[in-house]
Structure formats: structure tokens, C-alpha cells
Queue: 2 jobs
Job 1
Amino acid sequence: MKAAVLVEPGRIEIREVADPEPGPGEVLISVEGVGICGSDHSVFSGKWAAPEYPWIMGHEAFGVIEAVGEGVSDARIGERVVIEPNVACFECEQCRMGRTSACTGRQSVGMNRPGALAERLAISERFAWKAPDVGEDDLVCVEPTTVAMAGLRRLGDRALDRRVLVVGVGALGLMVVMALKEHGSDVAALDINAERLAMAQELGAGPVFEDERFDTVIDTVGSPGSVTEGFEHLAVGGTLMFLGLDNRPMPLDAQSVVRRQAKITGSLTYDHPGDFEHALELIGEGLNPGRVVTDRHPLGEAQRAFESVGSARGKTWIRVREG
Ligand SMILES: [Zn+2]
Ligand SMILES: [Zn+2]
């Protein structure tokens, strides 16, 4: 099969690679489209090392089940699915507590097992969800929407019933804005990129007033600059949640956190199966996260897609196969 493989940091080639085989309990998916997000870009750029080179990236995928492994009903062949790319072990302590996002044996498509930027992908059937009857732009946004919605779930309704500030409205931030609007929150957004901010405003995020403080701040970036900005706008007793995976030290001292009586928290991906179930339900009912898609590329242009993702106004995805 054809795949977009990262041969070294920053360089993708389209190559012929061996087809995956569906193991017991797995389905083989003919991949149609794959979204690109910040974590994929970190692998592309070499900021996060790939487990090996050449490496197949990509995890925000949808496609059609083409074959099934042992123990899976053939009734699923032909079903259009969206993948939940973090496959939990269901055996570790975290999994047994229901926190599969922290699974110690987690297999992540495109991170520690081969990714979705290929014509075919094998995955456990429990992690191949029946796609709702919505457009392709929506399907490619299911996974990042789930990340955003899981963050809101973990914050809890009380934190969302106030005015909420979203710092950073790249693709994930835009999903957060949409999920907040869907919840009925009053949302404001900040970003250093004016085009992205305009897009967040189209989705209903308002401006931040001078010296305004928020009880709830969601930082989707985690850079030194965004942390400073977010904390500056955090009210006394407020909650600052991080969704971005920046690894630089934070410009925050204990004294400031204590004086602000701030609650600082992080939210990693989502927990199986509730978060995907909930996101798919809302998307099936018309949430339409595909509104934030601005860039679509064919598989042959994967290199260009990754190079331009940082400057894209909204979400970028790669069409692997015509649906
Ligand atoms: Zn993602
Ligand atoms: Zn586990």
C-alpha cells in the first residue's frame, strides 16, 4: 500500500510499504482522510522523536472497514468509521479506574504504533466507531473535538457556567470555543494571530476587555507567553486548565499562584469509551466542527501540508483516498 512516511525529521516521502493485517479483535480500515494536529507536527519537526525512521504519522482518521480479524463480525465490513487512536490496555491500574487516558500500556496510532497516513490501518474494533452521517470535514474533526470536550468535562459544569477565556485558537482552541458555545458558555478568546482570532470570533468568541479577569481560563498552547497571558487574566480563586503539550518551563512562581488562590490543572486526551461516545453524539446532532477546516491536501502533498500547518488559519487535513 501507499503511505506518507517520515524518513527523517522534516522530510516526508510517499512510499510503498507492507499492508497491515488485522489481528484478533481488529478491523482493517481503508483510510479516507487524516487530520493534522500539533502533536503530529511535533513528530514531523523532530521536536518529538519518532520511535524509528521511516515512520508513518497521523492519528485523526476516518475510513471504511475493508476486512475483519478473528472474532469480529463480518457485518462490520463496509461500515464507515472514525478511529479513537489511543488504544488502552484495559488491564493497568489507570485503565481499571476508568482513566484510560493515563493507560501505562497505551498504544497511540502515529506515536508509538504506525500511523494513519497510509491506505490501510488495523485497529481494535472497539476503537473504530461507527461514523455519524455527517460530512468529511466533520469526521476529520471528531478526535480533536473529543480532546476539547473531555477538557470541559473534567473542568465540570460550574467552571463552564461563567465567562471562559480560551488562550490560543489554533485548531484545538477553535474546537474548545465550539464546545464551550455548545455548552452555552460565554466565551472570550486571545491569540497572537489575528486571522485565527477572527475565526474564533466567527464561532462566537468575544474580545477580552481591558484588565478583565476570568474564573476559568483554558490554555491550548502552554508556551511561556500564553501561560503569562492566561495567568494575568485569571481571577482570584479561578481555574487555569492546560491542554497544550509545550515542554518549556512555565514562567509562574508559587507566590503568584498562592496569592491568586489559583487552581492549575491539565487535561490529557479522553477516556474510553464515554468521551468519544459523547462527542460523536453531539457531532451527529449537528455540532459541525468541520466549520474550522480551511486546508485540504491530497496524500501526495503531505510534505506541503505539514510545512504549512503552522500558518493555516484553521484545521488542515490530508485526503488519503477518494470516498
Ligand atoms: Zn490530534
Ligand atoms: Zn491501561
Job 2
Amino acid sequence: MIIDTHAHLTMMNDDGVRVINNMKDDNVGAIVTIGTTLEDSRESVEWAEKYDNIYATVGIYPDFSLTTTDEDLETIKDLAKSEKVVAIGEIGLNYYGDDYDKESQKELFVKQLKIADELGLPFCIHCRNAGEDMYEVLSENKHLINHSGLMHCYSEGAKLYKEFLDLGLYLSFSGNITYKKTDRSYLKDVPLDKILVETDAPYLAPEPLRGRKNESKNIKYIIEKIADELEMDAQELEKITEENAKRFYFKMK
Ligand SMILES: [Zn+2]
């Protein structure tokens, strides 16, 4: 069974309900729906509490670093106490566009790492165009990585994968690992027990569906592509990634 370690059901509305209803037929065992704002985190928890096999994360996305208050973070902490909340996320650094503030993003990120540590939860990292800074911040805050973290939509490639693995993180691969121009050569050097798979649905559909609306069942294309690169059986890799997801999101039942 596939476990989608990162999707946004809250951004799919009725389509999200259809995806949930089809999970069994689609060989999808569980979906983790990811919070991005305070409101979205609250909604994610609602979805998770309403449906079996749906889990949530709560957290504030880096783009909102300048407007997030300590009170908001207290609310995130409260939301995280739900039994269905399996991690803090997505949190991190987003150096994309021309309107980002590095310092406040780093500050918000570290504050949320502290929440994860305090509550004994793993965390999900968003990192775009910020690999070096991400590595620096995590290295300086190693003491906060007690329940591991995952690099969502891993895109630093061969450049930094060893460094992130050395910090004890998992690498989570999404549709972009299937794209024609993506370097997949380093995959064989990533320990099998550190590989996770995710859709980031409704975004980032994998080949051959690139450009379309994405959903959890499409993870099979990601697994096939990685298995291909590793010259292993896709079903075996599916099983391994399922076990990895359950180990990482240890609150999952
Ligand atoms: Zn996402």
C-alpha cells in the first residue's frame, strides 16, 4: 500500500473527498495532509479527525514569517495535541520570488523546530533555493532534531543529500524526481530506509501526467521511477517506503 507522506487535501475540496473515498481501490493506505497556515492547519486537523487513514501536520509556511505571532504558534502547539497530528510542518525556508525575508524565515523555522522537539514530534521541511542556509540552520540546531525530519519535495540533489542524511533526516521524493532533466544518479547512494515518497497533490504531478491535477494514487509513477534507477522491483520499493513512512510518522496507526 502507498502512503502519501505529503499532500494538501484542504486545497482539493470535493476532489479531496473523492480521493479519500477511492483510497482502497487505488491502493492508497494513508495520506498525510499538510498544514501551511494557521487556518489551513486547523482545517487539516478537521479532515484528519473526520476520516480514517487521513493524518495531519500543523505548521506555518515560511512565506508568512513576517506576519506570524507567538500567539499563532501557541495555537499551532494546541492543534498539534490531536491524536491525528503526526508532525509539525510544513516549515522551512522559501527563497523564491523577490519578496522573501531570510532572517524572519529562519527565526520562524527555528521556533517551530522547538515546538516539534517540545512535543516529541517529527517535522516536515519545505526548502526552496535555500539548501545551504537550511543546512546551516539545522546544523546549528542539531539538538532540536530528536524525532527526525523529512526534506519534502527533495530538490537539492547530489549537492547536499549526504549532509542532510548525516543530520538524520529522511529524503522525500515527489513528482519532480520523475522529470526528464532531473539528476537521479545519486539515488543509489541514499540508504533505502531513508527514502519517502509523496505527491504534494494537487501540485507537481509526475511524468507522464505532468501539468495535470495531482492525487495520491499517482505515487506509483514516482516509486516506479526510483525503482528503475535502483534496478529493483517496484513492489518491493513500495513496501519499503510504506515501512519508512510508518517509522517516520510514528503516531500513525
Ligand atoms: Zn506541500
